[in-house]
Amino acid sequence: MRIVSLLAVSAALASASPVLAKGCIRGAAAGGVAGHFVGKGHAVMGAVAGCAIAHHHYAKQARAEKAAARAQH
């Protein structure tokens, strides 16, 4: 059941914006690997956390780029 919910959240974030989805996928991969080394059952939690953190990072970066583009005009 956890895997289904993880896939649903990832699909929802992926459909929002391709740039943010790329960040989510990268973060989920890194978090999953890190969670795997922590212990049993932590890979899924690491993937979810990695996706959320990377999504936040790329969203903040996109807002900064948008503000910089507005300032130039």
User: Count the helices. How many?
Assistant: 3
How large, in whole angstroms, is the Cα Rg?
14 Å
Per DSSP, what share of the residues sits in E-state strands of 2 or more residues? Answer: under 5%
Shape: elongated
Order of helices and strands: HHH
Protein name: Glycine zipper 2TM domain-containing protein
Organism: Sphingomonas glacialis
Keywords: Signal
Polypeptide structure, described:
- This is Glycine zipper 2TM domain-containing protein.
- Keywords: Signal.
- This protein is an all-alpha fold and about 70 residues long.
- The protein has one domain (about 1-70).
- Helices cover about 90% and strands about 0% of the residues.
- Helix 1 (about 1-15) packs antiparallel against helix 2 and helix 2 (about 20-40) runs antiparallel to helix 3.
- The longest helix has about 30 residues, at about 40-70.
- It is elongated, with a radius of gyration of 14 Å.
- The model has no long low-confidence stretch (mean pLDDT about 80).
Q: Which characteristics define this entry?
A:
signal, mainly alpha, Glycine zipper 2TM domain-containing protein
Short description:
With 73 residues, the protein is mainly α. The chain has helices spanning 2-16, 18-38, 42-72. Helix 2 (18-38) packs antiparallel against helix 3.
